């Protein structure tokens, strides 16, 4: 047995109406000038105006420049907005993209250099030398779990390659997880983000890294998603199902401090090359990759089948996943979602460069990725 480190530092306020407590919380911290970081679509919807109505007494500015897979230029524009407003804190309000930008806007606003100079694998990585602005997060989707994560995934503008800024210093000081904020999600978004949450829980559990605390969280997160994903898609106003998916999303993101696997390496490549939604990319790859992984850890597939109440044990788990995808409206192959054979070499190259597969249950070669992408076509 080797030395190991475990940390679960994020304070979470969970439940319907949690969003209404943000204003009093910030005032209690002596803060007055928040910058709300959100995306272009949410900024135009009533949900943001309703949230702002609970920030009375604060001088609020909004940066809504997040769109699609977040880029370094979006972060730097948000940092400029923070400085222009003379903000003293950041509120992240949105899905994974908006929250990933919100997590590092304060960093970019208070430190020198481009945000990607702080990515973990930069050859001359900059140090986060000073305290970052106070940051709270409100998720409006249930999938990435970015609100509780210590990483921010930001794409290079020119290449679209996804880069990771990783530090406990960018964690939210407090998360306000309100399932009422997710009831307006359309079914296809609920399905894709829900599969992202389920994938996080499954891949975290399958990772060979030693983290029994995260194993327990991941198994429970998978159980909750298996119980409620279909209902959340088919009954959008079902607050119990929405709450379950929001909880499963956070549990998956907490668990993946244990690391992920080849499904995510493939999904990151599909996002970079084909601009596929991350949750959809995971959903399109998960059954193919898990079918390949199963022989390496059959006992873990038995446990997953048990907690997800899959009749037939571990051997039935991948077929169950395929049926789940059908039930929530995720159909087709990579090809039917626009991926072409000409893109395969670049997909393989980016997936192999991605760090996630280093904790896959089976070691991955470029040839393995080539076969996996081809099988999912």
From TrEMBL:
Protein name: Iron-containing alcohol dehydrogenase
Species of origin: Ramlibacter agri
Annotated PANTHER family: ALCOHOL DEHYDROGENASE, ALCOHOL DEHYDROGENASE 4
InterPro entries in the cross-refs: ADH_Fe/GldA, ADH_Fe_C, ADH_Fe_CS, Alcohol_dehydrogenase_Fe
Annotated SUPFAM superfamilies: Dehydroquinate synthase-like
MF (Gene Ontology): alcohol dehydrogenase (NAD+) activity; metal ion binding
Residue span, Alcohol dehydrogenase iron-type/glycerol dehydrogenase GldA domain: 9-179
Similarity section: Belongs to the iron-containing alcohol dehydrogenase family.
Keyword DNA repair: no
Cofactor: Fe cation
PROSITE patterns: ADH_IRON_1 (PS00913), ADH_IRON_2 (PS00060)
Domain Fe-containing alcohol dehydrogenase-like C-terminal per the UniProt entry, residue ranges: 190-377
Oxidoreductase is among the record's keywords: yes
Keywords recorded for this protein, A-Z: NAD, Oxidoreductase
């Amino acid at each position: 047995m080797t030395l190991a480190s475990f940390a679960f530092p994020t304070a979470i306020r969970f439940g319907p109406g949690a969003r209404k407590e943000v204003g009093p919380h910030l005032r209690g911290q002596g803060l007055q000038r928040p910058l709300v970081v959100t995306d272009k679509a949410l900024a135009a919807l009533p949900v943001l105006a309703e949230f702002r109505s609970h920030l009375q007494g604060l001088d609020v500015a909004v940066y809504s420049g997040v769109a699609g897979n977040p880029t370094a230029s979006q972060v730097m524009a948000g940092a400029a907005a923070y400085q222009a407003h003379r903000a003293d804190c950041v509120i992240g309000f949105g899905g994974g993209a908006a929250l990933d930008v919100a997590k590092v806007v304060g960093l970019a606003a208070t430190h020198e250099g481009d945000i990607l100079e702080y990515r973990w694998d930069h050859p001359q990585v900059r140090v986060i030398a000073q305290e970052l602005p106070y940051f709270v997060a409100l998720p409006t989707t249930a999938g990435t779990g970015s609100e509780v994560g210590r990483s921010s995934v930001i794409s290079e503008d020119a290449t679209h390659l996804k880069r990771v800024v990783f530090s406990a210093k960018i964690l939210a000081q407090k998360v306000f997880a309100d399932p009422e904020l997710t009831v307006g999600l359309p079914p296809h978004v609920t399905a894709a983000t829900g599969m992202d949450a389920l994938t996080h829980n499954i891949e975290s559990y399958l990772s060979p890294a030693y983290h029994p605390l995260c194993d327990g969280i991941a198994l429970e997160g998978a159980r909750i998603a298996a119980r409620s994903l279909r209902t959340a898609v088919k009954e959008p106003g079902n607050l119990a199902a929405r709450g379950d998916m929001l909880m499963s999303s956070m549990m998956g993101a907490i668990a993946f401090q244990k690391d992920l696997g080849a499904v995510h390496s493939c999904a990151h490549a599909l996002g970079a090359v084909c601009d596929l939604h991350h949750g959809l990319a995971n959903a399109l790859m998960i059954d193919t990759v898990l079918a390949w992984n199963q022989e390496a850890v059959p006992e873990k597939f038995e446990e997953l089948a048990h907690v997800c109440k899959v009749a037939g044990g571990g051997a039935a788990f991948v077929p169950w996943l395929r049926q789940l995808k059908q039930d929530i409206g995720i159909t087709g192959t990579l090809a039917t979602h626009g991926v072409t054979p000409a893109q395969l070499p670049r997909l393989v190259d980016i997936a192999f460069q991605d760090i996630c597969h280093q904790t896959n249950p089976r070691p991955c070669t470029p040839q393995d990725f080539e076969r996996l992408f081809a099988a999912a076509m």
